[in-house]
Write a structure and sequence with these properties.
Rossmann fold, DNA polymerase, domain 1, Thermophilic metalloprotease-like, 3 domains, nine-stranded antiparallel sheet, six-stranded parallel sheet
Length: 632
Amino acid sequence: MNYTHILFDLDGTLTDPGLGITNAVMYALERYGIRVADRRELYCFIGPPLVDSFMRYYGFSAADARAAVDVYREYFADKGIFENEVYPGIPTLLARLRAAGLKLVMATSKPELFAVRIAEHFGIAEYFDCIAGAAMDETRTQKWEVIEYALDRCGVADRSRVLMVGDREHDVLGAARCGLSCLGVLYGYGSREELEHTGACAVAETVEAVGDWILQKEDINMYDLDALQRDYVRLLIRGGLNLQPGQKLVISCAVDDAWFARLCAEAAYDAGSREVVMNWFDDALTRMTYLRAEDAVFDEYPAWAAAKSDTLADEGAAFLSIHSSDPAYLAGVDPDRLRRSRIASGRAMKHFREMASGNRVSWCVAAIPSPAWAKRVFPDLAEGAAVTRLWEEILKAARADRGSAAEDWRAHSDELRRHVEILNGYDFRSLHYRNALGTDLTVELPEGHYWAGGEEKCLGNGVVFSPNIPTEEVFTLPKRDGVNGTVVASKPLSLNGNIIEDFRFTLREGRIVGVSAAKGEDILRDAISVDEGASFLGEAALVPCDSPISRSGVLFYNTLFDENASCHFAFGSAYPCIRGAEDMSEEELAARGVNQSITHVDFMIGTPDLSITGTTHDGREIPVFVNGNFAF
């Protein structure tokens, strides 16, 4: 259990005050010559501060609205206060939460005097440690003011362990302003759209579901987003990087996501890190640079930046990259500038790239949602709801949605290892890919190759780490000049801040000799021409169609996720999955068929009908994939 205090709204959350409030509003409006035939038109008054509602819905001035509230209270204090009823199941819910050791607080925009009378009249006051409401003199009416007042009265020190529960947008927004999450309820007067749009961490449809969510019942997946995020952070630091005491950590993160970087830094120091070094970036400034900087800038890369990365890698630092960019944040940028910039950075960062791809340092790539990315993935949802939904999908993909991320990730890694061992046992000479999209491709594998997946061993310090979270793949490298046929992409590709759609490659003796795309063909052609090796394949990865990411049906527009929904290849640099590669020179690796490039771009080719047949060195044909999934 992660919460210590639960703050409950009153109207629409604990009680249904519809009759009393609407009668009192009608009474006040009649004083101003306004008659309302259907009381349902006045349900909008339930929850928000009354002054705001009179001004918003009937155009009253501030002075008239305050006067109308006084008239409202004439009726409400005498009759309306008890024209009310407790929602069925509320006493049971409150008793259940109290029995679990939680402190309960009422935080309502209703005047505190009225809130106390209502709670006592209906027999629920005994469940609350504190009842906090608005002031009669209108000095404390906004929801955030009431919440701050309640927190102060209760002496709450750690707001991360406090949850607000309410039925309207002002509950969600007020909680957010005070640094709290808010669980929305649908049995009151708010809608799912209203609650999700304003950023409710979750929505409960029934009174019973409120208790299930708070008490982290097993069948509630997203029981506490804050707690799950922290569990995810621990997975990245302890399971992804396997950070060691005394080791430096380098975090690359967007400035807008500083809060998450701080959580990672805190977890790193808890693990004994010597120092956390930050590399900040900003998508808006990066785009501005590509659009407005002098042209010569894109043929350069700061020597100090390359030296910093090289030095930290040579010192044995671990590297964590947090992705959150809008997949199309560089749309419309000159493709030639993107290509030249990639060439310049690739050359300057050669040493660091070889250290990472050769597993001489431990590294991990992960992701968190940004509003722009979330809206691209879920365009039909409001921004707040889209971000929450993308968080859910990211945590599910990372096996971090149940509060036991480390254990669940370990079990997943063990399953990946089983497939790796089977594939290495066959020692295939080649693989033949076919599907109805038009893929018909034969891929030779280098002599002495091996399959890898899930976890890697850092050659620098011997620790085991997970380079990608999430991952569903097992992978090896194609022989550089041994790929022939046609391969058709099954998903769009987010490349250099652009979206490439409906594309295919034709390969002959390993080289990409034909390219076509319905959208972004010029970007794609530039990408495979940044150097000689960019037009050859560097990775062949197997991912079953029944992987969790594939089953989700979500198109992430982010290779870290989309590659784990589908078998894929990468053009460009190969991970040197050759036995003894750590002792080979570049020339020796090239002679063994290892492709070398400054780029490495994954693209997805898996489909539900994909078949892959492996041919062994003695000529046996072994089904590897049948109908999009492993045959073993």
